Amino acid sequence: MIYDIAVVGGGIVGLATGRELLRRHPHLKLVNLEKEDVLSKHQTGHNSGVIHSGIYYAPGSLKARLCVEGRKKLWKYCDAKQIEWRPVGKLIVATHESEIPRLESLMQRGVANGINELQMLDEAGIKEREPHCAGIRAIFSPVTGIVDYGAVARAYADDIREGRGEIYTGREVTAIDRANNVTRLRTSAGDFEARGVITCAGLQSDRLAKMTGNKSDPKIVPFRGDYLILKPEKRYLIKGNIYPVPDPAFPFLGVHFTPRMNGDIWLGPNAVLAFAREGYNFATINPRDLFEALSYSGFIKMASKFWRVGCGEMYRDVVRGAYVRALQRYIPELQVEDTLPGPSGVRAQAMNADGSMVDDFVIDAAPGVIHVRNAPSPAATSSLAIGSYVADEVERHFSLGRTPAPVP
């Protein structure tokens, strides 16, 4: 059997893409292939659950546009599917005068991105929102929320099945070749053929792209983020999301405070090089993954520039007191004994050979294939909008055979 479209990757972006294509083109023979035995096992299954506003991203970028659009679509989707979500809001907090100019610039960026609900708060306003938070000024985003993205991804998968699409787990793609306008996907459990292929492979995205002859860069370098969890009796310290003011001089955002749908409060994460692309702890080491990261010119250049930051992140990873001291900048009452070990996630960070981190979503095409090469946060928030964007690219590059059905 030759499918019209094969989507590689059973995370939230791959599922959103398959869902959107079947909504537009109900006649399509579509299959989704996931290498793990369950869907959404990696980035989707390990993220913080935040519905982002879109404030951080450069105006005009794909991240800015698709995050704002995707957030609004996600609200409506969750309401229609009766998936619980909560608009808990977010404070982006300045604790020092030197951060005020960056905070004001961030406010301007948010307005430029169409987020008109943002509010600038003084110290009293911060205390009104978060009584235990220390800060001198803050941006309050009322449109930031939380959701269980695993539940969202499962709903997307249900939509695919209801649209007569097929989903197979345990199908790791090991090679891709194309002949006579058909792409063959060789997998660990047999071959699949399709006229068009879309890869949404997250942590493996550069390797899938390389299989089709695409360039090696941007390359995925995995960074693990470890969280602490606030003890239940201390949850009164946090009401909504509390985030730092981003510093463009550093490659990562910094520790923050994230409420979860189950009532937990996650603290963190830090950011350290993962020893495997799917390495959620120190003990998981994949020699191939580690060698590729350490020998990559982009990582070497980044590490030489930010080695002090990296050492600090690693120190906080093993010394909880140091980790908590970073958190105390925002919640001074927090003590080491108020925290428990938490979960970890691995960010598929796309990096260029010059050592710069790719700041935007990257979606490109080769004959018969469209690759989603970089889709870290806020990809989950943006998933419905990314799915729509990729579907537009499919319609532009592939022949789908029939006139598209109207999209409701």
What would you say this structure looks like, in words?
The protein is an alpha+beta fold. The chain has three domains: 2-45 and 150-218 and 360-397, 3-Layer(bba) Sandwich (FAD/NAD(P)-binding domain); 90-142, no CATH class; 219-357, D-Amino Acid Oxidase, Chain A, domain 2 (2-Layer Sandwich). Helix content is 33%, strand content 26%. It has twelve helices and 20 strands. Strands 1, 2, 9, 10, 11, 12, 19 and 20 form an eight-stranded mixed beta sheet that branches. Strands 13, 15, 16, 17 and 18 form a five-stranded antiparallel beta sheet that branches. A hairpin with a 5-residue loop joins strand 15 (256-259) and strand 16 (265-268). The longest helix is centred in the N-terminal third of the chain and has 20 residues, at 62-81. Residues 402-408 have low confidence and may be disordered.
What's the helix and strand layout?
Elements: E1 2-8, H1 12-24, E2 30-33, H2 43-46, E3 50-51, H3 62-81, E4 85-86, E5 90-94, H4 100-112, E6 119-122, H5 123-129, E7 137-141, E8 145-147, H6 149-162, E9 166-168, E10 173-179, E11 182-187, E12 190-199, H7 205-211, E13 219-230, E14 241-244, E15 256-259, E16 265-268, E17 272-273, H8 287-295, H9 297-305, H10 307-318, H11 320-328, E18 339-351, E19 362-366, E20 369-374, H12 379-397
Parallel strand pairs: 1-2, 1-12, 2-9, 5-14, 12-20
Antiparallel strand pairs: 3-8, 4-8, 5-7, 6-7, 10-11, 11-12, 13-16, 13-17, 13-18, 15-16, 19-20
Helix pairs in contact: 1-6, 1-12, 3-12, 10-11
